[in-house]
Batch of 3 targets.
Target 1
Amino acid sequence: MKNLIYVPLLMLLFLNCKSDQNTITVEQETTSEAAKNNTSESKKVNEFAIVIHGGAGTILRENMSAEDEAAYNAKLEEAIRVGHEILKNGGTSLYAVEKTINVLENSPLFNAGKGAVFTNAGTNELDASIMDGKTLNAGASAGTKTVKNPINLARAVMENSPHVMLSGEGAELFAKEQELELVEPSYFYTESRFKALERVKAAEANKTARDKTAFYDPTIKDSKFGTVGCVALDKNGNLAAGTSTGGMTNKRWGRIGDAPIIGAGTYANNATCAVSSTGWGEYFIRAMVAHDISALMDYKGLSLQEAAREVIQKKVPDLGGDGGIVAVDKNGNMVMEFNTAGMYRASMDASGKLTVGIYKD
Ligand code: ASP
C-alpha cells in the first residue's frame, strides 16, 4: 500500500526531469543559433523600450546657444516620457509612437508639423508614415498642407483605408472624413523656417537650372534637419516605427522624401527591429535604409548595431548621402546611429534610464 503512494510521486519526478531536459535543450539551441548568427543581442535586454530622433545634420555645438540647447533637450525629454509612460502602463508601441511624435510635431523646434520647412513656392508640404511590426501593416501620407498632425493621418490610412499611402488633396479629403484636426496652411508658418528659405533662395540665385534643385547644394542640404521619428517595443513584444517631416527646405515639384516611404524612412517587423530614418531623403530612398537594416538582421544574422552601422556608416555615405536612424530590436536593444555632426535624439529603457543627446560626443 505504502509503495502505491510512491508510484505517482516517482512519475511526477520523472516528468519534471524530462521537461527540465527539454528546457535545457531549447536553451542550448537558442545559444548555438545566436553564435551561428554572430549576434550577442539574442537575449531580451528590455521588456519595453523607446527611442526618438529630432533630425540629423550639421548640428554643431559652436552654432547652438545654451538656451536653444536646453529647449531641444527639454522637448526631447518631454516627448519620450509620453511614450515611455504609455509603454510602462502596458500600452501598444503604435500608440506610444503616435503620441510621442505628436509632441514633437506640435513644437516649432522640429521640421515636422508646426515647425515644417518651406517649399520653393513658400508652402509647407508634410510627409509621414507609421508601421506595425506585428502585422506588417503600414500607413503613410505625403504632401499635405492642412493636417495638423500627419502621423495621425498615417495611422488612419493604415487602419481605416485599404491603402498604404495617400497624397496631396486626396489625403486631406481622407483626413477630413476621418475627422482629424485640420488647420489653415498659415498654422505652419514660423519665422526661422521662412528665413531659411530666403537664405537658400539667395544662395541658389546664380545657379544653373539643374543645380537649382535642393539636392545638389551642400549648403542647402543642411537646411533640412528636424525631421522627427520614434521607434518602440511594447510589453507584448510588438514593435512599431513612425516618422514625420516637412521634408527639405526649397523642395519643389511635389518632391517627396524618404519619411513617408515604407522601407526607406520607416520600417518595423516583430521578427527583427523597428527603424526611423532622418537625413538626405533621396539617398535614404535609394539605399532603402530602414528595410535594409532589418534585412541584414534577417538574412545575414547581424545584430541591430552591426546592421545599422553597415547601412549608415558605409552604404549611405558611399552613395554620397548623410543622416542617421534610431532603432530598437525585438529584444529591446536600442541604437542611435548617424554619420552627421549631430542628431537630436533620446532613448529610454524599461528601467526608466534616459539618455538625451545632440552632438556626436
Ligand atoms: N529625410 C527628410 C527628407 O528628405 C529630411 C530629414 O530627415 O531631415 O525629406
Target 2
Amino acid sequence: MSWIREGELSLLERLTANVLKAGPMPKHVAFIMDGNRRYAQKRHVERQEGHTQGFDKLAETLRWCLNLGIHEVTVYAFSIENFKRSKEEVGGLMELAKEKFLRLLDEQCFLNVCFAYTSRHEIANAVKEMAWGVEQGLIKSSDVSEALLNECLYTSSSPNPDLLIRTSGEVRLSDFLLWQTSHSCIVFQSILWPEYSFWNLCEAILQYQQNHHAIQKAREVHREGQAVQQLESDHSCVAELLQHRGNGKPVDPQCRQTALQSYAASREERVQRFIGALQQKRDTFFDHLLSPTAVA
Ligand code: FPP
Ligand code: MG
C-alpha cells in the first residue's frame, strides 16, 4: 500500500479542504521544515528521533497536499550549511535520507528534495554554466538574460513555488530558492515542524488566497518587463549588426523589422542548442557519479 496515500482526512478536514478548494489553490508548495531539534529537546527525546518524526511529518504533509489538489512539493531537506553540524548528527541525517529516499522514489507524487543545496550556490553555478556556453561558442554574451539564467537553475523543469512555508518561528529564507520565490507568498509559522498539522497548512493556504491577486499582478508585471527587456536587447544587437553591414548607412524600417525577426529566431535556436548541451553535460556528470568505477 502507498505510504503517502495511507489514511483519510476526517470529515471536518474534508469539509475544510472543499471550502478552501473553492478559492485559488497553490499548485506548487515549498517547505523549510524547521524545528526538529527543538522538538526533540521539548519532548526529551534524542535529536535523531526529532529528525525521524520530521520525516514522518513530511509523509503526512504530502498526503494532505494530495488531498488538497497540490501536486508539486519542494522541501529543504539538507542545506550545504548543515554539513557544519556534528559528525554524529550529519551521519544520522544521511542514514535517514538513505533509508527514506528509496521509499520516496516509489511514490507517484511530484516531490523535489533539495539536499546539500543552497540557493546562492545554485545561482553561481547557473552563471558559470552560461559562461561555459559563451566559451564553447554555443551562445553569445548578448544571449545572457534573466530568462536564460532561469533555464540554468536545477529547478528549470518546475514552475516556481506559489507558496513557501517555513516553520519554527524563524523568519529567514536561509538560502533556499531565493531566485524562485520572488513572486511567491511566503508564510512563517511558529509551530515546530514535527508538530505541523493539517490546520497549519490550511492557515498558510488561506494567507496565499488572501494575497493571490497581488501575487498574480506582480507576476504579470514581471513577465511584461522581461519581454520588453528581451526586445530591447534584440533591437540593440540588430542595430549594431545593420550598422556594421551597411557601413553606417540608414536602414529602412521594413528591412529592420525583418532583421529583428530573423535575429530573434536565431537567438532562440542558439539558446535551445545550449540548453540541450547543458542537459547532456549534466547527464554525463550523473552517469559518471553513479558508475561503479566512480565509487572505487
Ligand atoms: C530542520 O530542523 C531540519 C533539518 C535540518 C533536516 C530536515 C530533514 C527531515 C525533516 C528528514 C529527512 C528528509 C528527507 C526528505 C530524507 P533543525 O535540525 O534545524 O532543528 P532546530 O531548528 O530545532 O535546530
Ligand atoms: Mg533549524
Target 3
Amino acid sequence: MDRYEEYKKLLKTMMSEYRYRHSLGVADEARKLAERYGADVEKATVAGLLHDIMKDQPPKVQLQTIEDSGIILTPVEQASQKLWHAIAGAGYVRMKLGIRDPEIFDAILYHTTGRDGMSRLEKVLYVADYTSCDRQYEGVEHMRELAKISLEDAMREGLRFTIQELSGLERTIHPNTIFAYNELVCDKLRQQRDSAV
Ligand code: DGI
Ligand code: FE
Ligand code: FE
C-alpha cells in the first residue's frame, strides 16, 4: 500500500464521510495549486489529505493532543475551539504519524488562521481549503477564479471573508489572521505604488 492509501485508510477511521470527502478534495486541489505555483507537490498532497485529521475528534481529545505535543495555547486560542483542530492536527501528524517535515507541520498548523510570512506551501493549503471541489459557499466560483490567477489575491479574499464573518458573529479573530491580512494588503499597495511611477 502506498503512503497516500495508508493515510486515507487512517482518515476513514477518524472522521465523517463528509470530512473524508473534503480531505480528498483539498488534497487534490492542493496538488493542482502546487503544480501551478511551484510548491512541493508531494508535501502539498500530504498536507491536504491530513490537514483536518483532528477536526471530527472530540474537543477533549484535541486539547490532549495539543498538550501531548508540547504546544502551549495562547488565551485567544483557548477561547476559539474552532482553531484547536489545526494545532492538534499538526501535533498529531508529527507525533503519531512521524512526519517530521517542518513545512508540512506549519502548513497544517496555520491552515485555519494563516500568518504573516507564509511559505508557498502554507498558502497553497490555505487556498485549497477554500476552493476544493466539495466547497459550495456563495462566492466559491469567484475564489476559484482568483486562485487560478494569483495565490495572494485568493488568500486576501479568503482572509477578508473570514475576518468579516467572525467580526459579524462577535467571535475572536486570531492575531495571525490579522497579520496575514495586513501583510497581503501592504504588499498590494506597494505594488500599486511601484507600478504607478
Ligand atoms: O476545517 P475547515 O472547516 O475545512 O476550515 P478551517 O480550518 O478554515 O476552519 C474554519 C472555521 O474556523 C470557521 O468556523 C471559522 C474559524 N476561524 C477561522 N479563522 C479564525 C477562526 N476562528 C477564530 N476564532 N479566529 C480566527 O482567526
Ligand atoms: Fe480545518
Ligand atoms: Fe479543511
